[in-house]
Amino acid sequence: MNALVALCHFCELHGPRTLFCTEALHPPSPSPSSQAGMTVPGDRDRDGDREGEGLTMRANSSATQRGEMYTYLSGCRSLPASHPGFVSIDDETGIRFLSHQHPRQPQLFSVVRQACVRSLSCEVCPGREGPIFFGDEQHGFVFSHTFFIKDSLARGFQRWYSIVMVAMDRIYLINSWPFLLRHLRLTIQSLQSTALKVFDGEQGVCPQRAVRMNSVFSPAVFPHQRSGNAARSLTSLTQHPNLWASLHSSFSWLLKACGSRLTEKLLEGAPTEDTLVLIERQTEQEEEMSCWEGADGGGSQSPRYQPESELGHDFLCEDMKSNELPGPKFTSLRHLRQVLGGAEFRQLAWHVLMGNQVIWRGADPGLIQSAFTVLKSLLPVGCVRSVPYSAQYEEAYKCNFLGLSPDVPIPTHVSSSEFSVLVDISTERCCQISTVGDDDICSIYQFSISSANTQPTDRGPTLLNKLEVALSNENLSVDVVSHCLLCLKEEWMNKVKVLFKFSNVDGRGGEDTQKVLALLGATGPGEEDNVRLLKFWRSGLSKTYKSHLMTAVRGGERSLSQ
């Protein structure tokens, strides 16, 4: 990731100062594959020439910068002037992570300096502790998290610090907000808890509050009284002998992990609604995780790093879990149709497409979850709310796919409702379920489908009619049928977008809406089912798309009024 992480400190005599900085240096050519993994900071012998060259460049570039600054107090310095700094090398990419008090490039020095000053002066959140985002195209964009460290000798018994990440890519930095917030809080909480122990120990030996109340205050000598106390370093406050090596490891990992968790992919056209919904769910999960960690103080265990492909994908995680369960499973829509029968499958698929609650009740959770995996492919991701297997009934507003154990009763208002369908699974003969193959489902289980719906399900919707033609054609493979279903879903999602824009955003009347339905091909045989499908599938539209439409409409209204 083309970014830089820095630890900053507000000195009582000199103001904001940069204490420690970690930057990533990309190699001009691919690195040799003679090494593996990241080099441990301080391991000079194993990487001799490569590390020596980088550290020499670092020392030479910083000499002039240090000569032009104030004389440093120990509280304003992290490493001694003679210290060469820390370096880690990621041999998979050849990227070097260098850490010292200041960046090695002069142009970056001014950028970090400005970020440091702003993070500890004007760009702070309410309460002066917490994250904030600021920046511009010229000086870069900054994610800053300010915090306090306890110090028994400081004014107010605490000192002010901040950790800033500086990058030129605003979108990337904003999208990484939940990830950065979660992991920077772990580093900050570790520093604060370590410093608090030192603070409590010093207060136990000599309580400074009582000493200050009994001492004579003189404005003339106050700066001289404070000068000695202002020189305490972060190492002294935490009593951590390897503090800077530890921060180097933490910052290096943060740059590496943050750069690898989001990757650019070449897409054929605009992202689908399913992709947008999955991204939104991932973001919501990360925000919820950050809120929980903030509420419980971070806990004793740090969360495991997860790449993007593992976050926010409950829709896919349930499918992977079902494959781990023993016993036979449904493998495709065609397989499910063969087991249930054509008429029963159409009735079940009709309820799924109409948005009714689909309940499966049986003793085999793996079989039920595999059925849900197959049936969920009929719907956009945003329309799916699933409870794979439960010991009690859940209302329809919570889930439209519900798996129940065999002894769970169905409430009367549900069994008598036309907006639900129940599939009861019974075992015809005793056998070892784990040894039964997918082709033996019919010989082991018996399926009973019941619903209070009295409407005919053989007319529409049009999507189901076309899908059944594809499923009944044995010349088409399962993969071809899957792609056919994908195209049908995209076609009808586009119709949903048109209908949403026409009725919800533009606010057109019923007569005009009927004309649009005819234009979309939703009228004629099965018209009622097509309209119900379109209305239900509106819940599958992403928040991003809806917000984009509303913003565009408001922008057009403003331009017309002007």
TrEMBL record:
Molecular function (Gene Ontology), one example: GTPase activator activity
GO cellular component terms given for this protein: centrosome; cilium; cytosol; lysosomal membrane; nucleus; spindle
GO BP annotations, alphabetical order: negative regulation of transcription by RNA polymerase II; positive regulation of TORC1 signaling; positive regulation of transforming growth factor beta receptor signaling pathway
Highest taxon of source: Eukaryota
Pfam families per UniProt: Folliculin (PF11704), Folliculin_C (PF16692)
Basic and acidic residues composition-biased segments: 42-53
Domain annotation UDENN FLCN/SMCR8-type: ranges: 77-542
Keyword annotations of the record: Cell projection, Cytoplasm, Cytoskeleton, GTPase activation, Lysosome, Membrane, Nucleus
Region annotation Disordered: where it falls in the sequence: 25-62
Subcellular locations according to the entry: Cell projection, Cilium; Cytoplasm, Cytoskeleton, Microtubule organizing center, Centrosome; Cytoplasm, Cytoskeleton, Spindle; Cytoplasm, Cytosol
Signal sequence annotation: none
Database matches in PANTHER family: FOLLICULIN, FOLLICULIN FAMILY MEMBER
Similarity comment: family membership: Belongs to the folliculin family.
Annotated protein name in UniProt: Folliculin
Native organism: Mastacembelus armatus
